[in-house]
Fold this sequence. Notes:
Number of helices: 3
Number of domains: 1
Shape: extended
Amino acid sequence: xxxxxxxNLERLLLPTLAAADAIIAVSxxxxxxxxxxxxVSARRIHVVHEGxxxxxxxxxxxxxxxxxxxxxxxxxTLEPRKNLAGLLAxxxxxxxxxxxxxxx
Length: 104
């Protein structure tokens, strides 16, 4: 993690947790960590598992208007720890492995 990110986390995390009326945790493990490591009351923590409502899905093989047939969505910060170059190299290998070799 970049030093600036760590500094901001150390400076802002506890005051932000203290000021929040409620906290959403993406898993029970995260909720347990908030309770055990940071002393957050279990009454203020709400576990909301990640997922997508069926209303946001499209039939297999169909893409929303304007989305190219081949794309990769990367939603994150551009930090060295995210290893974007490794992600792209892995994606390239996965695509190469999925496309059968053809002879000319």
